[in-house]
Amino acid sequence: MSVASRLYQLQTTEQQLRDQRRRLQETESRLDHNDELAAAERELSDLDSRLNAAEKHQRTLEWEVDDLNAKIHGLNDRLYGGTVRNPKELMSLEQDIQGLKKHLAGKEEQLLEAMGDTESLQQEASTLRQRVADISAAWEEEKVSLRDARESLKADVVRLAEARAAIRQEIGPEASQRYDQLTKAKGLAMVKVEQGRCKGCNLTVPAGLWQRARAGEMVECGSCGRLIYVE
Q: Hey, which end of the chain has fewer CB within 10 Å, N or C?
């Protein structure tokens, strides 16, 4: 096989190696983090905080309602227990009881609203917890496939790196250096000639040049300066 053919093979191998390394990096990055799961867990954490606050608010209102009921009960005992006989004091007790009952009615209304809010948040949290569990289960299954893909990609990277090293050793340092210089300067060192046109610049290559390239010589395109390859 000619040096030009081996250089084209080297370029193809290096492109494949870059692709597999990129895919390996993407696979490892995917294994490190699941955006969907992380977002759902953050949402659940925020919802749990809101639920805890709602439950705390509900308990506070329940205590306040209980306290008001206890006060009303105590005043009723005094009002109807016969221990208080002074009309003014009895009237004052009745006014206090009415004031407390009015306050109690407002608190009970707040409590009913708070209970509704808590129940709604509990249902929302239950739904979201199930969603997190479903995403987590699917993620565990996906990780098995990703780990298998990672091992396969690692093997590909090793194989391609070894193939690249073998080609470079075969073509020698001079051809390798020329190839590297062209790759650095132009992105691609080797380009095909198809139907008489260079695939690097799309300009016509003189027949004499591409015929020499077909014969295995290292020939540069007169327009773009890349090495041309003819199958």
A: C
